[in-house]
Write a structure and sequence with these properties.
about 250 residues, alpha+beta, Heat Shock Protein 90, eight-stranded mixed beta sheet, 9 helices, 8 strands, about 20% strand
Length: about 250
């Protein structure tokens, strides 16, 4: 199966930018894409990662942590990332310790299970001005579209585009072969619900030539310009540095 055009009704990046009802995260991502394309390094993994760090943190710094994809490395990188938050927001870290640990573990496990690569990249920082915790988890693997093709799952629904693949992932279509995991999808569906519905945050997925954005009560999948084609998958999360009343982590655990 080859990837040619998008049959799923995704919005174009241009339409989204010109809309009067724009996700706040989409503004950040537009600046991120501008940074990447203007650098004339499109498609290069490091330029994407450092561009996102630059937009999130205000400057490019060695804050992105590479990690091997094994259980020991996963636990180590999660501990390392949370340690960075301690000086800037100890109270928030204490309140969000369990959901943050669970979310990071889930996102990293997605790479281990689906990306067919041996390394991932993580970024976690506190945005003092916005009072938010910002997360980036990325890989340079086979993309979400590629994971469906590799697993030979839902090919009748997949179509031939990255936007189609993101649409399936957000609706919980699994790439796994175990019946009792069918509701987990690529891992994105349940994680997105926890971030957006539970923690009132923002969730974005960049994979190949498509971008999915969701904030409370708003969702869009964007078909990106051809010059933006990320060879892998990048998940970006922004959550308030406080736990909303009534939040229960166990409502979102698979």
């Amino acid at each position: 199966m080859s990837k040619n055009s998008c049959t799923f009704a995704a919005k174009s990046c241009k339409d989204m930018t010109n809309s009067t009802d724009i996700f706040s995260l989409e503004i950040t991502l537009s600046a991120f894409f501008d940074c990447v394309t203007k650098s004339n390094q499109t498609g290069t993994g490091d330029s994407f990662l450092h561009a996102m760090t630059s937009i999130f943190h205000g400057q490019t710094t060695p804050l992105i942590v590479p990690f091997a994809l094994d259980d020991e490395s996963t636990a180590k990188v999660i501990a390392q990332l949370k340690e960075r938050l301690m000086p800037s927001c100890p109270d928030a870290l204490q309140l969000l310790n369990m959901p943050l640990t669970y979310l990071l573990d889930e996102l990293i496990c997605n790479i281990q299970q689906h990306a067919q690569t041996d390394k991932g990249y993580a970024y976690l920082m506190y945005n003092k001005a916005a009072k938010t915790i910002e997360i980036l988890i990325a890989d340079f693997g086979i993309t979400i579209y590629g994971s469906y093709v590799a697993a030979q799952k839902h090919l009748d629904k997949l179509g031939d585009s990255d936007a189609e693949a993101l649409n399936l992932a957000q609706n919980g279509y699994s790439v796994k072969n175990l019946p009792d995991t069918e509701n987990r999808g690529y891992g994105i569906s349940s994680n997105m619900k926890m971030v957006v519905d539970g923690l009132h945050g923002e969730f974005a997925v960049l994979s190949g030539n498509a971008l999915m954005l969701q904030v409370p009560n708003k969702r869009a999948i964007l078909a990106l310009p051809p010059e933006i084609d990320f060879k892998g998958t990048m998940i970006m999360v922004r959550i308030p540095a406080q736990v909303p009343d009534g939040f229960n982590l166990y409502n979102y655990m698979s």
